[in-house]
Structure formats: structure tokens, C-alpha cells
Amino acid sequence: MTALQIDDIKFFMHQFLLTDTFDRFLLLEGTITTFNTFSIDGILKKSYYTRQEQELLAERTLSFWGEVRPFCLELIKGKKTPLSFRFTLQLSAPNTQKLLEQTGVGIPAGQVRGLLMNLRYDGQSLSCTTGTSLSVFTMDKKLDHAWDDMVQRYFRKQGIPFEIV
């Protein structure tokens, strides 16, 4: 687990809300506080979809950030900044598999419940805390380090300035 302090909140928010930079991450949950508190559960409600749409969703149980982003933008945009927000994003299963293969981490993909980014804004500062969730206990921290490194590389690639806290 690594905590990153985002140095340029305005740039990050532009990337987060107005571009596809984070669109392929899954949304586990989110909360936005403006004049009310809005809670978002990223779990897909498959009964909402037609049978054909359900087949396209396959085994996916969470919404992609890109599917929810326009609704969040509507809640956040305007002259006033939100009082706070928090979002928990998760790396998709295919990208988790790629990370495991590229880094040589010896944990089977089926034992990885989630590689997470917790984004928190408190009205003044914005942080990103990484996390891993496994279905088994292990003392091996290779996956934690690989995920921490990947998030930092991804932020650098996107031009998002940060400091490790």
C-alpha cells in the first residue's frame, strides 16, 4: 500500500472527469458530497439489462468508470468545488492478469480479489492510496509492490504530478 498526494488537483480532475484516462478501471464505489451526499454502488444490476446486453457483460459485475463518469461530472461540475469525494477504482480482471504475467508475481489471478485505487478529496487535498485484496493470506508482498509501481508509472505516463507520502 502506498499513499500518493496529488500535486495538481485541477489537472487530475480534468483527467478524471473529462478524459478517458481512468475509463477502463472498474468502479467499486463512490461518494460525492456537494449540496447533498450522493453514493454510488458500482455493482451492475444485471436485471436492468436485456438478455443480449447481459451476454455482452459476460462475467463482469462492476461498472467501468467510463460508464459512470458522465453522471459524476454532472454532480461535480459548476462554479463550486465539491465538499469532498471518494472513489474506489479496481483494475479489471484482464489487466490484473497482464500485471501478474509482466511482473512474474506467483499468485494465481483467481486469488486476486482486487487491485484498488482509493481516491479521496477532502475539500483541500487529493490523495490516492493503493491497496490489494486477496482471497488467501500471504506474507509475499511482491503483488503489493508491483501494483504500487504500476500506479505510479501510470500517473507519470498520464502527466499527473504526485508525491509519495
Describe the model.
The chain is α+β, with helices and mostly antiparallel strands and 165 residues long. The chain has one domain (3-164). Helix content is 34%, strand content 29%. It contains five helices and eight strands. It has helices spanning 9-18, 51-57, 65-76, 93-103, 142-157; strands at residues 3-6, 26-33, 37-41, 63-64, 84-90, 112-121, 126-134, 162-164. Strands 1, 2, 3, 4, 5, 6, 7 and 8 form an eight-stranded antiparallel sheet that branches. Strand 6 (112-121) and strand 7 form a beta hairpin.
What is the count of β-strands? 8
Quick one: biggest sheet?
8 strands, antiparallel
Q: Taking Cα atoms only, what radius of gyration do you get, to the nearest Å?
A: 16 Å
Our count of domains comes out at 1
Supply the helix-strand structural class: alpha+beta
> Span from first to last CA?
11 Å
Beta content comes to 25-35%
Structural features:
single chain, 5 helices, eight-stranded antiparallel beta sheet, globular, 165 residues, alpha+beta
Give the helices and strands, then pairings:
Elements: E1 3-6, H1 9-18, E2 26-33, E3 37-41, H2 51-57, E4 63-64, H3 65-76, E5 84-90, H4 93-103, E6 112-121, E7 126-134, H5 142-157, E8 162-164
Antiparallel strand pairs: 1-7, 1-8, 2-3, 2-4, 2-5, 5-6, 6-7
Short description:
The chain is α+β, with helices and mostly antiparallel strands. Helices cover 34% and strands 29% of the residues.
